[in-house]
Design goal:
This protein is an alpha/beta fold. The chain has 15 helices and twelve strands. It has helices at residues 25-38, 53-57, 69-72, 81-90, 92-100, 117-131, 149-163, 175-180, 186-208, 218-225, 243-252, 288-295, 344-361, 384-391, 400-410, and strands at residues 19-24, 44-50, 64-66, 106-112, 135-142, 168-173, 229-239, 267-274, 303-310, 317-327, 370-373, 416-419. The protein is globular, with a radius of gyration of 25 Å.
Length: 420
């Protein structure tokens, strides 16, 4: 993709709004609407893009675009990403104008993957932003397992397209909401997921606006994240003994993200914020040993830059803001057993899909183990194709689909399964 460039000039008398947060579709719109109404992050503007005009009309975000008016008539994408993709292409010029107006230099695009508008339109909007020369960050969610295999695979296809359409991507796994926040209400748990967007944007704003002993600026952020792939953007706090270590741990404790292995990153920006000296709790030189410990295990050639500044809002704790990028993530999913008989090629394909699911969700279920035993008839003993297939697949690896495949070759109606 050819990247564009923009001349950057803004008023020195007003704080520039360098960051625009764009919500695409229902899920992305909900997250941005919450962030906008909270009003807690300075220097940020908001934009909503949706195929559903009614949903947009209920939002508190002032800047809104009904994309693809002739494609969807404002009635939504009907869970069809291809329709949303066409809608975004139709509104290309309007979207580009909205993204590039004012002081905007960086765009966050947030969407839920698996439905129609977010899955189809978000990658197109990301591409438009990148072609305009904007630093483009994606924050997307992938579905709960109970939402079904078809939606999961549609979501992971959307993630794949997003990775090709943004500089850096954060993936939030909704399935982990059940694991981590099981004692929360549904509304509270979803607010935790939305916090990922707010924390990421806030982390950028804090770095851009820092003034201290050693500063980081927008160009440092740009260098770290542009073309960086998967990213981490977060802040953490620590107090008491080992407070720097605690702050690092807090910053990296983002259990909803699909990848948190910061030490595999190739580009790193870290900002320390600490209390003023007058409090008696300023950052001490011996605490920098904890920074040395944090850096152990990183790649030797990791591109690193640090910033340090007093924060008058801190009294006895330190804050660490981390940006990291350049490590790989390929969260992909499965489509399990199909009805009826399948070929060897289809079986291999299904195993590949199972691996996609495992990479994104891990081993989420503890299943009972079955040894599946196939009973041969005398005719089966003469069936060379069947014998070859059975011999190639150990009993402990056999799945429901494998048994069905054996049956189709043997022309049997049933097979025996023994649970151990």
């Amino acid at each position: 993709m050819e990247r564009g460039s923009l001349d950057f000039q803004y008023s020195e008398t007003e704080a520039p709004q360098l960051i625009k947060v764009v919500g695409v579709g229902g899920g992305g719109g909900n997250a941005v609407n919450k962030m906008c109404t909270m009003g807690t992050v300075p220097g940020v503007s908001f934009l909503l893009c949706n195929t559903d005009a009614q949903a947009l009309s209920k939002s508190a975000v002032p800047e809104r675009i009904v994309i693809g008016p002739s494609v969807t008539q404002g009635l939504g994408a009907g869970n069809k990403p291809e329709r949303a993709r066409a809608a975004a292409e139709e509104s290309h010029e309007v979207i580009q104008e909205a993204l590039t107006k004012g002081d905007t230099r960086m765009v966050f695009i947030t969407a839920g993957m698996g439905g129609g508008t977010g899955t189809g339109a978000a990658p197109v909007i990301g591409r438009i932003a990148m072609q305009a020369g904007l630093l483009t960050i994606g924050i997307v969610t992938i579905p709960f397992l109970f939402e079904g295999k078809r939606k999961i695979l549609q979501a992971l296809d959307g993630v794949k397209q997003m990775r090709q359409s943004v500089d850096a991507l954060l993936v939030v796994n909704n399935e982990r909401l059940k694991e981590i926040y099981s004692d929360y209400s549904v509304a509270e748990a979803f607010r935790k997921a939305d916090d990922t967007l707010t924390k990421a944007v806030r982390s950028i704003v804090e770095i851009i606006n820092m003034h201290g002993t050693q500063n980081l600026d927008f160009h440092d952020v740009d260098t770290c994240l542009r073309g960086g792939g998967v990213a981490i953007m977060s802040s953490g706090f620590g107090r008491g003994d080992g407070r720097m270590t605690k702050a690092f741990q807090d910053a990296l404790e983002s259990p909803l993200l699909n990848d948190r292995e910061v030490k595999r990153s190739r580009s790193l920006r870290v900002a320390f914020f600490y209390p003023p000296e007058a409090t008696g709790n300023s950052l001490m030189m011996d605490e920098m040993q904890e920074v040395d410990s944090f850096m152990e295990g990183f790649l030797r050639d990791v591109d690193t830059k640090w910033g340090m500044a007093e924060d008058p809002n801190l009294t006895d704790e330190v804050k660490v803001t981390i940006l990291a990028s350049g490590f790989r993530l390929d969260p992909e999913e499965e489509e399990e057993a199909q009805e009826g008989t399948i070929s060897l090629e289809e079986m291999e394909h299904e195993r590949a899909l199972d691996e996609r699911r495992r990479q994104a969700y891990g081993d989420t279920q503890k299943r009972q183990r079955y040894n599946r035993i196939f009973l041969f008839s005398s005719e089966d003993l003469e069936n060379e194709k069947l014998l070859e297939v059975v011999d190639a697949l150990p009993v402990y690896k056999r799945t429901e689909n494998d048994i069905r495949h054996f049956r189709s070759i043997a022309n049997q109606a049933a097979a025996l399964e023994v649970m151990v």
